[in-house]
Amino acid sequence: MSETFTSVAQEEAGFRDRARLSFDLDADICVIGAGLAGLSIALEAARLGASVAVLEGRHIGWNASGNQLGTVMPGFALPLTDLIERIGFEDARELWAMSKEGAEFVRANATEANMPGIGPSDGVLEVSNVDAGDRLISRLQMLHEDFDTEVEGWQVDRVREALKTDRYFHGVYYPQAFQVDGRKYVHGLAALARRAGARIFEDTPVVSIDHSGIRKRIVTPSARLRATHIVLAGNIHLGAPLRRLSETLLPVWRYAGITAPLGERLHEIIAFKGSVMDSDGVDHFRIVDGDRLMWESPETTWAARPQRFAGSVRRRIRSIFPELGHVEITDMFGGATGQTVHGMPQIGQLRKGLWVASGFGRQGMNTSAMAGQLIARSILWGDERWKLFSPFELVWAGGATGRVAGQLVGIWGRASSAAAGSLARYRERARIKDRAREARLAEANRAAGTGPRRPPPGVRPRPAPPPKPAAAEVEPASHDGGVSQ
Q1: Distance (Å, rounded) from C-alpha 165 to C-alpha 441?
Q2: Which segments carry the region annotation Disordered (predicted)?
C-alpha cells in the first residue's frame, strides 16, 4: 500500500469516534451529504456567516469523493462543442468561466498550510488515441481565444518523448490545471468547514424531509433538525426520502489501482509529472509517491469489490506501456459517480428553500467546488448565476434498464476507441513504410545518376542520332510550290 493511502487509513482511523446528531438543532442551512459538493457548500456558506449543519449517513468522503485521482481542471463532462450547441456560445462561455472559478476554489484551499501533505502538482495532459491534428488546432484556438484558457498543443513527437508508447498521438496540455491527493482533500475540506463554524454529523442518515413552509424539517433516527434551506448533495445515495431525485442519475463505478514501487524505470517511460487522460475517457493515470503509478480505467454500472479489477488495471498498464513489464497492484479503490442523461451537473433550486447539487460525473473536483460557491452565494447574496443550469432538467436515467444500456454503451465506446486506435496505429505504420520505401527509391535514383551510364559487358553502345537542325536553319518553302533560289 502506498504511503499516501497508508496515511489516509491512519487519518480515517481517527474518525471512528464520529459525531452523530443526537439532539434537536436549528440552522440556516442543512446540507445532506458530506462529499466534495456538500462540504464545499458548507465551507463557503460558513465563511459567509451562515449557520450550517451537514448530515452524512456514513462518513466523510466514503464514496467517489474520497476515491478519485484528484485532477482539477476547467470544464464539464459534456464536451465543449456539445455545450455550445445546447445553450449557445455566450452562456457556454459563462459556464466555462464558472468552472475555472471552481478550480481556483480548490487551489486556494488545497495548500500545505491548510491541508498538510496535500501535495499539489501542476499540469494535465489530455492525449489522443488517434491522429487528430486538424481537430486539435481548431480546439486549441477555441479554448485560447474564445474561452480564455491557457493551453498548448503537443505534436506526436513531444507526446511520445514524455510518454514512451505508440498508443498516443497529439496532446492538449493544460499548464494551469493541477492535481492533489484526493482523499486528503475531502478530509481537509471538512476540517476547513468545521474551522469556519460548520457542524458535521456523521452516521446520521435522513429518514424524512418536510420541505413545506419557511422552516423545513429534517428527521434523523435520533434527532430532528430545522433549517431555512436544505441542500441535497448526496448524489445517488440520497436514500428513500428522495429516491425520485437519485433516479435521475446513472450510477457509474470507476476503479483505480496503485502499483508497487517501480523505481527509475517508471520515470524513463513516463517522464510527464502531472495527470494524463485520454480523449476517450478510458484511462487516467499519474505518478504518486515518487515511483508508483496510480491508474484508473475499469468502470461498471453496478457495485463490485475493487479488488476484482486489479488484473484489469495491470493488463491495461502493460498494454499501454509494455516496457514497464509485469507490475504489481498493491491497492485498489473505487467509487460511484452520478452521471446525468445530458452530461451536465444538477445545480439549482428545486423549489423555494430546497436546493440540489449532484451529477458531476468525472469532472467532480472543479464542478462540485463551483456548485458550493453558486449555491452558498445565491442563498446569502442573491447570486442567480445558477440559473444558467436551468436548461439541464432533471431527467429520469432509466432505472435498471438504464444501467444495462449504460454498461453496453460503455463497452461499445471502449471497443470503438480500441478499434480506432488500432486503425490509427496501422495507418501510421503504413505511412512510415511508404516513406522508407520512397527514401530507398530516391537513394537508388541518386546513386544511379552520379556518373555516365555504362553498357553491360559485351554490348556495344548505340551511336547517338545526328542532331536535328534548329528551326531557324530550315529554309522556308516558296509559295509557288517550287524551290527557292
Answers
A1: 30
A2: 438-485
The percentage of the chain sitting over the pLDDT mark of 70, rounded to a whole number, equals 81
- Span 1-101+111-118+182-249+340-397: which CATH code? 3.50.50.60
- pLDDT reading at 186 higher than 90: yes
What are the residue ranges spanned by the domains of the chain? 1-101+111-118+182-249+340-397, 121-179+250-336+399-437
For the chain, what's the residue count? 485
Q: How many other CB atoms are there within 10 angstroms of residue 56's CB atom?
A: 28
Nearest to 334 by CA among 294, 306, 312: 306
User: One-letter amino acid identity for 150?
Assistant: E
Q: What is the model's pTM?
A: 0.82
Top mean-pLDDT range of 145-154, 235-244, 386-395: 145-154
Mean confidence (pLDDT) of the chain: 85
Angle at 386 between CA 383 and CA 388, to 5 degrees: 125
Distance (Å) of CA 40 to CA 272, 395, 439, 478 = 30, 25, 60, 105
Q: Which helix (H) or strand (E) holds 99?
A: helix 89-109
Bridge-based pairing state of the strands 216-219 and 224-232: antiparallel
Q: What is the 3-state secondary structure (H, E, C) of 288-303?
A: ECCCEEEEEEEEECCC
Q: Is the pLDDT of residue 11 over 80?
A: no
Dihedral through CA 433, CA 436, CA 441, CA 443, nearest 10?
Answer: -170
- Look at the domain 121-179+250-336+399-437 and name its fold: D-Amino Acid Oxidase; Chain A, domain 2 (3.30.9)
State residue 223's pLDDT score: 96
Percent of the chain as helix, strand, coil, to the nearest 5: 40, 20, 35
Q: Examine the pLDDT at 455 and tell me if it is beyond 80.
A: no
| Lowest mean per-residue pLDDT among 69-73, 83-87, 474-478 | 474-478
